[in-house]
Please model this.
Amino acid sequence: MLPRYTLKCLFLFCALIFFHTVTAQNCEVPTLTNGTFLHGNNVRALYAASGSQLWDGSDSQFGIETNSMVLKTIFAQGLWMVGYDPAANIKLSATTYGAANGESDYYPGPLPLVDNLPMTNPETCSNFDRAWSVFRYEIEAHQADFADNGIIDNPLPSIIGWPGKGNPEFEAIYGFSLPETDQGYAPFWDLDADGVYEPLSGEYPIEPKHQIIPEHMVWTIFNTYGNFATDSGSANINPTEIQCLAWALNCTDNEQLNNTVFTNYTLIQRGIESYDSVRIGLWTDFDLGCYTDDYVGSAPELNTYYAYNQDNDDNNPCDQGILGAGENPPVQAVTFLNRPLDNFIYANAGFGLPPGVGSPNTVIEYARLLSGRFIDGTPITTGGSGYNPASTDEVAHAFPNNPNDSDGWSAFNESLPPSDWRSIGSTFIEHWEVGQVIEFDVAHSYFRAD
Model:
């Protein structure tokens, strides 16, 4: 008979082997073209059941509609997360352009708990490889329909099939059921406060934090558990369920709101171990019209990072038939709304800057960028490109000053070579407990002077 300590270790080892084995569920890489365009105001943005957003796997799908044309300002964006398990092992989920090569760190669908373990399978992933969409006019029609006689006489599929928790009509619309979960799914107005979405009783989708009805809402769900992390090549920060709600307001009397979209990431830790020193952020490949003449910067006091043009004329047309912004080019910004922008750094595609500021290829390089260091571990230091291994003047944010301030530190004032920049903004969370829900709210805003 094996000693008791040996038996305990054996059972623990078997449990860990089982836990890590079930992470490889053989789910397919999400199909970004199965996403839905958020299109509630001047912004057009594609959201899919993936951590890779705002592009279709081959081309930019985020931009501003102007004069029946779309000026594209972001080529691609990816959700990045890193943490350390109790044994101090790095766990990371991060995506860049992997979908173009059939790779991903994220897979569609929820992670319901069965016997306290998260579960998914290829069928569930396939079923949820989509985005749900609802417009304000549909919600208002639904409200009026119910107010008329207390009965929904003209059910609208976008509302009747909204993936709210426990929706009894969902399976009839989509042919598969919503798994049971404590946290629920897409947000809704719960008229009777029973926690169940009942659209035939007059309930309807809602933006939860402000309890408003946006012009348009898009909701998706994905996870880090459906297969291996084939984009970053890391050990995924498993198992995490991510619910993504994007929404837009149509405010013709408020140009700024009319050029902004909002995104809420609800991240649910479904694992059996907690994570420390967690960083959550976005990798953004800004392409502001012509993509080879951009600069990037940050405004830490506003929890914002952004892209702008090197001069006052974004050539039009530019390379490869891309629509340029022309004179008085805009600024495209990303703002963290409910968490601080603890770090901002860039990764450059080349164009005369040192190799240390390049894009990541290894797990540690992704983790360094999320922590505000260049891929070789060099910290950001004030002045020049921010990359100076000989300097000790460390800072958390690259280019934090207004480019119009001649005394400030910006890419423009440093006369850096214009380039195709990738930007990484992140927020720090000291501890992520099992079952803990983290919300991460972001705004993408477009600014342009007349």
